[in-house]
Design a protein that fits this description.
Blueprint lengths: L7 E9 L2 E9 L3 E9 L12 E4 L25 E7 L8 E6 L4 E8 L4 H5 L6 E6 L2 E2 L5 H9 L4 E8 L27 E7 L2 E9 L4 E3 L11 E5 L6 E5 L3 H33 L8 E12 L5 E11 L2 E5 L6 H5 L3 E4 L3 E10 L6 E11 L2 E9 L2 H22 L1 E8 L2 E8 L3 E6 L11 E5 L6 E4 L4 E5 L5 E5 L5 H23 L2
Antiparallel strand pairs: 1-2, 1-15, 2-3, 3-12, 4-6, 5-10, 6-7, 8-9, 8-10, 11-12, 13-14, 14-15, 16-17, 16-22, 17-18, 18-19, 20-21, 21-22, 23-24, 24-25, 25-26, 27-28, 28-29
Helix pairs in contact: 5-6
Length: 508
């Protein structure tokens, strides 16, 4: 992998704190390193801080630095006990980091409040607040781990009793702006190295692991000048936006980072399949064929189309969607959506003009027959090669699933009788008697037609399916539910057979 990966170094701009800052960037085969020159407050440069942990959201802090400056606050609250109610957000939790604890001979202190999250929205909590109790549970003599556990089990609505302590504020100096990028994920944090002082300035460093990252353009920050690209963390909670001098430089950087992430993805697929093999005790169960990040088109509250990151995996049988990159078996078992690959088809693949103007958007669409009807998705890729690969993997994956599954059976009602329909990849359509028969006997065949006798099919979208076999007449079947899964499976069987015939015809 090292021979095929790309390395680059240069000066770019990174978007931090609503402004652009010059940053030195170094790309290696599996990391992107940012180095930022910052001013240093010498009076606090030698302070060593107690351990820190993030509680219910946010990103971890380096053990030797604190991320927030002490804010301005009303004099009236200093030293006064206050009760603050915080309502957790569904995905982000409280959004604070804490330090201290009995083992550090310090109270439990709020060391960081993450902007835009639940604690910040109260506008009543401050860095330097000591947490005295959580929902009535006394934390004044708690260890750091005890406090973390109490906060995590506090439930949706959390009542905090806090007290602002001026005497501890010297511990809270501003750390590197790069720490705001976050990027703690997969149990493998992206470190922000302590600043190295040189005169009146210092250099801080942020190492971003590229494994399972999402590299994209114009997702969270529209850019008509085509000078920026974005990196999003595997857990979807952190991002980094970088800007180049011109579109050509951006294209070079984007292609290099994208190439390294793609190479890592090939190894990720191997690792996932090894994990599944271990869990299945040597017998191959689910096998991942392809996976990676895409942008899915959704509609906002105003009904306008927009895009969101989505992690997609194609296995030997399924088309899976995840909110974050799955790492553990538990992650893989809890997909956001799961579609049968055999009932999923590619409906379009190509490019169209971006609403922003001077560039194209590359998209492909899928439709899946499900018990709820037809489920449609539109996905965006970042390169033409990505579009080609995803389109090919979907079509070939569905055809391979057809050969793997081979046949489907379902209970139906035909002419007032409860019967069974078999759709077989090779033999076509067979209707059997639905009554149980002894093991040594085969069920009686009512009718049987190969695929080449099918002239037309239709359905009402609810439960009825019509199969027109020409001179042999039309057969109406009540599937007791949505006919769409079966309709899409028949389409996949036919498509796979035609594709196989073409390959056979082209063979020497």
């Amino acid at each position: 992998m090292a021979d095929a990966s790309l390395s680059r170094k240069g000066v770019l701009e990174v978007y931090l704190g609503h402004q652009w800052s010059k940053v030195q960037v170094s790309l290696d085969e599996d990391t992107l390193t940012l180095s930022l020159e910052e001013n240093v407050d010498k009076s606090n440069s030698n302070l060593i801080q107690p351990n820190s942990k993030t509680v219910n959201g946010g990103s971890s802090e380096n053990a030797n630095t604190i991320s927030n400056e002490t804010p301005q606050l009303p004099d009236s609250i200093a030293g006064q006990k206050r009760r603050i109610v915080v309502t957790k957000e569904e995905q982000n939790g409280l959004g604070i980091s804490i330090k201290g604890g009995k083992e550090n001979k310090m109270p439990i202190l709020i060391s960081k409040i993450f902007k835009g999250m639940a604690a910040d929205k109260t506008e009543k909590l401050y860095v330097g607040d000591a947490i005295l109790s959580v929902n009535g549970e006394d934390l004044r003599d708690a260890t750091h781990d005890d406090a973390v556990k109490a906060l995590k089990r506090a439930g949706h609505t959390v009542q905090l009793e806090v007290k602002y302590l001026r005497e501890v504020t010297p511990y809270f100096r501003k750390a590197s702006a790069l720490s705001d990028i976050g990027w703690g994920t997969m149990g493998n944090e992206s470190p922000s190295k302590p600043p190295t002082q040189a005169g009146k300035s210092c250099w801080s460093e942020k190492i971003i692991p590229l494994r399972l990252c999402y590299v994209c353009q114009n997702l969270t920050m529209p850019d008509t000048d085509q000078r920026t690209f974005e990196l999003h963390s595997p857990d979807g909670r952190s991002s980094c936006v970088l800007r180049c001098d011109d579109p050509a430089a951006m294209a070079n950087w984007f292609n290099a980072v994208h190439a390294n992430v793609s190479l890592l993805a090939e190894h990720n697929v191997i690792e996932v399949n090894q994990m599944w093999l271990a869990f299945s005790r040597g017998e191959m169960g689910q096998e991942v064929k392809y996976m990676g990040w895409l942008a899915e088109q959704i509609h906002n509250e105003q009904g306008n189309p927009t895009w969101r990151p989505i992690f997609v995996a194609i296995t030997d049988r399924e088309f899976l969607l995840f909110e974050k990159a799955p790492i553990t078996k538990e992650d893989w078992d809890n997909s956001l959506q799961s579609h049968a690959l055999i009932a999923t088809r590619l409906v379009h693949s190509g490019k169209h003009n971006s609403p922003l103007g001077n560039f194209d958007i590359l998209t492909f669409g899928t439709r899946t027959g499900s018990r709820q009807g037809v489920e449609a998705h539109v996905f965006r890729t970042e390169t033409q090669q990505d579009l080609s690969v995803w389109s090919r993997m979907l079509v070939q994956g569905a055809h391979s699933a057809a050969l793997l599954v081979k046949e489907v059976n379902c209970a139906v009602r035909w002419q007032g009788r409860d019967v069974k329909l078999n759709v077989h990849y090779d033999s076509g359509f067979t209707l059997y008697e639905g009554k149980p028969v002894p093991e040594d006997r085969k069920p009686e065949i009512i009718w049987q037609f190969p695929y080449d006798r099918l002239r037309m099919s239709g359905d009402d979208g609810h439960r009825l399916l019509w199969l027109d076999f020409g001179q042999d007449g039309e057969q109406e079947l009540d599937l007791h539910g949505s006919p769409k899964p079966l309709v899409f499976i028949v389409h996949t069987f036919l498509s796979a057979k035609i594709s196989r015939l073409k390959l056979t015809a082209c063979s020497p």
